[in-house]
Amino acid sequence: MSFPNSGTSYTSYLIRTITQTTTGSNYGHESPDPNEQSSVSSSVGIFYDNPIPSWTESWNDRLQQPSKGYILTKTHCGGFSFCNACDFLIYNSHTFLKKCLEGDYVTGNATSGFEISKGFASKDKIARAVHIIRDPFDNVVARFHLERKTLGKKNKAHYPNSREGFRHFCDDLGRIGVKAQKQAHMFFEDVLDLDIPCQADFFRYIQWHNMAFTSTWDLGIPTLVVHYESYTTNLNETKDALLEFLEQDEVADAPPFVTGKTYRDYYTADEIDAVSKMTERLALRE
Fold first, then answer.
1. 2 touches 131 (CB < 8 A)
2. How many angstroms separate the first and last alpha carbons of the chain?
C-alpha cells in the first residue's frame, strides 16, 4: 500500500526481478501486453473466485507464479486525488479500507475489444501489508509532476515543470476544503494558519498514512514499513527485509535503483518548518 508516487513501481519491479515471480495489482488496466496493439490486456485473477487482484505481467512467460510466501500486491487505497475542495475525500478507517480493496479488471481481447469492470478484493485474503513512505516534500512535488502530465497544452504552459510552476499549481489547487478544515480544527486550531504551499496535498498525505496505519492495526496483520529513501541508502538491506517479510527467495540480482530527485529547494525554510509542525500535530505515531 502506498500514497501515489512514493515507490510502488520500483518495489514491485524489484520483487519480480529478484524472485523471477510475478506480483499482483488491484488495477488490472495498468498491465498492458507489449505484444498486443492495445494499452490494456485481459486480466488473470490471482484467486480463482475473484478477478481482483490480478497478476501483473501475466503475459510474461519469464515470470512464474510464486510457489510459496506472500504475493506483493499494489493498492493506493483512497483519499489522494487532486481537487479544488476535497470534502468528499475525507475517510474513516472503514471507508479507507474499502478503497484499499477496490480495483478493476479487464476482460476481452484485442480482436473483440476490451472491457474494464470494477470490483473489490476479498478482505480475507489480506495477510500482510507493505507500507511504503516517501519524504513528503519530494512526494508532493512528484505528484505535481504526474498530475501535470494529464493537463492540456494551455494548462501545462501555465504550470511549467519547475519550482515556479509547482507554486502556481499550489496557489490554484492547494487549499483544503471546508470539511477537511473542520476535521483539522478538531485537533489543532492553528494547523490551517500555517503558510504551506499545496497545503491540501500535505493534508492528504498525512491523512492517507494515518488511515493506512489504522487499517493495518484494525486488521491485526504484520506490516513492513519501507521508506523510499532506503533504496538509495540501504538497497541490499531493504531488499532482504522485503524478501524475508514476503517469505520469498532471491534468485537473481536486484535491478539498479535510480535515485529520485529531491525537492527541498522548492520550499522556503519557513515552509519546511511549517510542514513539520503540521505533521507533528496531525500524524499518528507508528
1. yes
2. 15
Placement of cell 480495483 in the chain: 103
Answer left, alpha or beta for residue 107, where phi above 0 means left and psi between -120 and 50 means alpha.
beta
Is beta strand 50-55 parallel, antiparallel or unpaired with respect to 24-25?
A: antiparallel
Using DSSP's 3-state secondary structure scheme, residue 120 falls into strand
What is the sign, positive or negative, of the torsion defined by CA atoms of 29, 35, 36, 37? positive
The string of DSSP letters for 155-186 reads HHHHS-SSHHHHHHHHHHH-SPPHHHHHHHHT
Residues with Cβ within 8 Å of residue 78, at least 6 apart in sequence: 89, 91, 95, 96, 98, 99, 100, 102
Bridge-partner residues for 129, per DSSP? 223
Q: pLDDT tens-digit profile of 221-266? A: 999 999 999 999 999 999 999 999 999 999 999 999 988 789 999 9
